[in-house]
């Protein structure tokens, strides 16, 4: 187990470097000058050169990349062009808000999706399977930003039950876990949970149906094992693959929430990315993408380790 852990950590290093390089190059490929948003229209050439030197844009791209990676290793992601504040502080604050929203959405989506998938797989080819599978397909197919707008119209505009936008009465800075703040989380969390709910339900349904068709299940029943005992073995065999799917979906929730956070004006990384894109704020854009990418790599590493702990076949391999 320890050797496998060391091997996975070594494999994660080139992946992290490759992701960093892709993040850096993709941002620089985009057209436009990042200093346009802060330079006055009549800025002199000397002022333009001073700002380019201050942000390191006067150096060749390879040198910019090496300096950026070196500073990022020390926690320095530079300064935002639009606000002048440290990028690390901006990203950390926004990441905390997104993480809170994504975890709540994941808890709901994984639990409900797992139950739907298990029920559909255990009673496959019945009306229960058709209903659960149909709901999961709807969850995957419905555009989540459209669903968010529908929820706002119904529960905020018409019923006036939940707030439409924001992260609390005083913003995310004074967040506390009480009803006045939690109700701001309900609609965006439900909207974010729809797609992972459907994907987890479909994946678990296929896993359970495949496991129940294997010979060892018939052998367990022939030995007189109860239905509860058979279900326990099915869960153990389905857990590693289901865990991998859930880990990927949690990563997607953290990195793909830009539309939902824009609809609900939730001050997370998706909302921050949208602002950075429109303002052409390269340091903020690079820092946000890098943090999300590194979290995704770390999450995949954690899922691999937990899978190894759960599945003895991976240990033997």
**What best-fitting shape do the alpha-carbon axes yield?**
globular
Strand/helix succession: HHHHHHHHHHHHH
Number of strands: 0
Helix content: over 70%
Terminal CA distance: 11 Å
Strand fraction equals: under 5%
| Unreliable stretches | none
Structural class: mainly alpha
For the largest beta-sheet, the strand count, sense and barrel status come to: none
Number of helices: 13
Write up what this structure looks like:
This protein is mainly α and 317 residues long. It has helices at residues 2-29, 45-55, 61-73, 87-122, 127-141, 144-158, 179-212, 215-222, 227-255, 258-263, 269-279, 282-310, 312-316. Helix 6 (144-158) crosses helix 7 (179-212). The model has no long low-confidence stretch (mean pLDDT 78).
Using brief descriptors, characterize the structure shown.
317 residues; mainly alpha; 13 helices; 0% strand; globular
Q: Which helices and strands appear, and what pairs or packs with what?
A:
Layout: H1 2-29, H2 45-55, H3 61-73, H4 87-122, H5 127-141, H6 144-158, H7 179-212, H8 215-222, H9 227-255, H10 258-263, H11 269-279, H12 282-310, H13 312-316
Helix pairs in contact: 1-12, 4-5, 4-7, 4-9, 4-11, 4-12, 5-7, 6-7, 7-9, 9-12, 11-12
């Amino acid at each position: 187990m320890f050797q496998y852990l060391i091997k996975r950590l070594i494999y994660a290093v080139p992946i992290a470097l490759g992701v960093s390089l892709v993040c850096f190059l993709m941002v620089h490929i985009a057209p436009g000058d990042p200093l346009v948003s802060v330079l006055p229209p009549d800025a002199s050439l000397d002022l333009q050169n001073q700002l380019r030197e201050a942000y390191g844009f006067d150096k060749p791209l390879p040198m910019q990349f090496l300096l950026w990676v070196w500073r990022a290793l020390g926690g320095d992601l530079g300064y935002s062009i639009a606000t002048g504040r440290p990028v690390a502080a901006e990203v950390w604050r926004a990441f905390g808000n997104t993480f809170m929203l994504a975890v709540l959405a994941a808890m709901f989506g994984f639990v409900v999706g797992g139950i739907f998938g298990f029920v559909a797989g255990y009673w496959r080819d019945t009306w229960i399977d058709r209903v659960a599978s149909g709901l999961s397909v709807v969850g995957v197919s419905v555009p989540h930003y459209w669903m968010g707008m529908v929820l706002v119209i119904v529960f905020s505009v018409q019923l006036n039950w939940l707030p439409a936008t924001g992260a609390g009465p005083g913003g995310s800075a004074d967040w506390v876990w009480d009803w006045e703040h939690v109700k701001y989380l309900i609609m965006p969390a439900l909207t974010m949970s729809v797609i992972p709910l459907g994907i987890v339900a479909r994946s678990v349904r296929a896993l359970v149906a495949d496991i129940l068709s294997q010979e060892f299940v018939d052998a367990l029943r022939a030995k007189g094992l109860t239905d509860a005992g058979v279900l326990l073995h099915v869960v153990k065999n389905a857990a590693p693959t289901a865990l991998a799917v859930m880990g990927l979906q949690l990563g997607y929730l953290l990195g793909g929430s830009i539309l939902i956070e824009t609809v609900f004006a939730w001050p997370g990384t998706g909302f921050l990315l949208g602002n950075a894109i429109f303002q052409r704020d390269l340091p903020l854009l690079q820092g946000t993408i890098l943090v999300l990418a590194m979290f995704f790599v770390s999450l995949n590493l954690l899922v691999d380790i937990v899978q190894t702990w759960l599945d003895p076949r991976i240990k033997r391999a």
